[in-house]
Amino acid sequence: MKNRIIMLAALLLAALHLQAQQVTLTVEQIKLLTADWKGERSPDGRPYVADDVLERFKNVGIEDVWGFLRGKGYQNQFEGDWMILHPDSVMVGRAVTAQYMPLRPDVDKVIKDKGKAEGRVGPTNSWPIDVLKNGDIYVADGFNKVVDGTLIGDNLGNSIYAKTKRGVVFYGSVRDLEGLNEIKGFNGWIKAVDPSYLQQVMLAGINVPVRIGRATVLPGDVVLAKRGGTLFIPASLAEEAVITAEFIVLRDEYGHQRLREGKYTPGQIDSQWTEEIKSDFIKWLNSYPGKLPMTRKQLDDYMKNRTW
Questions:
Q1: How many alpha carbons lie under 13 Å from residue 228 in its C-beta half-sphere?
Q2: Highest taxon of the source (predicted)?
Q3: pLDDT tens string 18-59
Q4: Which domains does the chain have, with CATH numbers?
Q5: Could you tell me the sign of the dihedral formed by the alpha carbons of 18, 22, 23, 25, in that order?
Q6: Alpha carbons 96 and 136: distance in angstroms, whole number
Q7: What pTM does this model have?
Q8: pLDDT tens figures, 159-195
Q9: 110, 119, 202, 205 from 113: Cα distances, Å
Q10: Torsion angle of alpha carbons 169, 173, 177, 179, nearest 10°?
Q11: What phi and psi values does residue 37 have, to the nearest 5 degrees?
């Protein structure tokens, strides 16, 4: 454990230096940053949370997942106060991150030369888009620059949606709002819109740790974006987080029903449940009228370890 902490610290301290020499972190560097993840990975090294887990996140509340993460010690995973292109939609996917910074010519030249050597083409703000795959969400720290800080317009927006069937989370701005809104299925959580072009901004790295407002995001994090804000869930906690949130939804549904029926008082439902209430809840689950969001085995295994 001590050696791992030292290695992580060395990696993070060297992050800017690394970004000045390579456009993206290597597979091994990404694996080191996300060492708690034990499952499948994308070819670039990012954790690959399964599609069915991503789909389940669409039906849970940000508050419930946020509470779970806080309980695990992750207190800096949420950012709110967004301009949302389609606020009634939910977007869930795997993070591809990009770091932008105010332009410094010597560093910008190194990055561009390195990208050219790697066969990257076009302006640097198109490079993160080139690596996107289906199910990814493009997450970029544009250091909240609005005027001359627009990371994409409708052309790049079309490319993003074609590759991911998702959209973007930008701590920064975009242009061509009308054109972006015409891309059916595309969505964006952004800070502002401006008609200007991108200027005095440089790409500092792809799939590196980034800051999105008050949140820290790693490549491969699960992005849960809703009307209430964005939550960035470490891949290693994704399955436990979603079933915890799903259980809370079921528990609340049961509690609301029993309160309407007058079977229990608010004090009984809102405090530690008695064995009688737990038993009644299990019976209620056995006759649940809809489809459970998880398998019954997953639910039973989860309840064995829950303190209620």
A1: 11
A2: Bacteria
A3: 444 589 999 999 999 999 999 999 999 999 999 999 999 999
A4: 2-234 (3.50.30.40), 239-304 (no CATH)
A5: negative
A6: 6
A7: 0.91
A8: 999 999 999 999 999 999 999 999 999 999 999 999 9
A9: 5, 10, 13, 13
A10: -70
A11: -80, 125
Token pair of 129, please?
Answer: 């888009």
One-letter amino acid of 136: D
Length of the chain: 308
**90 token code pair:** 């939910």
